[in-house]
Amino acid sequence: MHTRIDLILCNQSEVASLSVTKDIFNEIERIEKLGNRFNPESEISLINRLASNTEIKITTELFSILSECVEYNRKTDGVFDVTIHSKNNYRNGINDILLNVTDQTVFFSNPNVQIDLSGYLKGYALDRVNAILMQNKFEDILINIGNSSILAKGNHPYGKGWKIKGISSHFVKDKEDCYLYNEFLTTSGNDSKERKHIINPYTGKYVEGVKEVSVITTVGVLGEVISTSFIINPEIKIKSNFDFRIL
């Protein structure tokens, strides 16, 4: 993820807040080490190096993550694709990820396949942070990862919910404010003509132009999937059992 994280914890003692902050830091650091493809010691890097040669036994957590990514690819008609950065501009590599449920292994049926979880991990990290907060009965908090992935729980000390200013909307030119209450806010897109980082899996080319989409969801991962998918194809019909709304 390699980004700044802001955390506001309200109505808790300093001791409890520091303890939970440490737990959150450790969890995010663990997730980073699990899914950072640029870290040669991460589990995802091991898969990218070896899975085209032999079946690789992986942890239950990463097996679940990859299974979910494959499922979201299906639910977005191929728009959400964690293999978009495969070698030699290889496309549709998601179909070459073979997951063995019985042995909990992964195998790539094409040597070009590479997995990049960068469009997934921030949402996953927020979901894990939310679990930590619920376990410790923290109710009024705001956590912001990289100004693009936000979790707002409970209330601001001086009002109901949390006011988030200057949110990008697909439907209007000017940015808007919104209120979050026990919700996630995720923004994807290009904030300048120079910043291009989302690849259209249908064409293999970067999405051009200044455009951003913000999504409010009840699940962090879902926000990452929907906002990225909607930037690529605004007409897509997301198949989901969870609530969400696009700003």
* Cα-atom radius of gyration: 18 Å
Number of helices, counting only DSSP H or I runs of 4 residues or more: 5
Estimated share of beta-strand residues: 15-25%
Order of helices and strands: EHHEHEEHEEEEEEEEHE
Report on this model:
The protein is globular. Helix 1 (14-35) packs antiparallel against helix 4 (121-135). The strands form 4 sheets. Strands 1-5-6-9-12-13 form a 6-stranded antiparallel β-sheet, with helices on one face. Strands 2-4-3 form a 3-stranded antiparallel β-sheet, with helices on one face. 30% of the residues lie in helices and 23% in strands. By secondary structure, it is of the alpha+beta class. It has 5 helices and 13 strands.
Chart the SSEs and their pairings.
Layout (H helix, E strand, L loop, with lengths): L4 E5 L4 H22 L7 H8 L5 E2 L2 H16 L21 E4 L4 E4 L12 H15 L5 E5 L3 E5 L8 E6 L8 E5 L2 E8 L8 E2 L4 E2 L4 E7 L2 H13 L11 E3 L1
Antiparallel strand pairs: 1-5, 2-4, 3-4, 5-6, 6-9, 7-8, 9-12, 10-11, 12-13
Helix pairs in contact: 1-4, 4-5
What is this entry, summarized?
β10 and β11 (205-206) form a beta hairpin.
Annotation keywords:
247 residues; alpha+beta; six-stranded antiparallel β-sheet; three-stranded antiparallel β-sheet; 30% helix; 23% strand
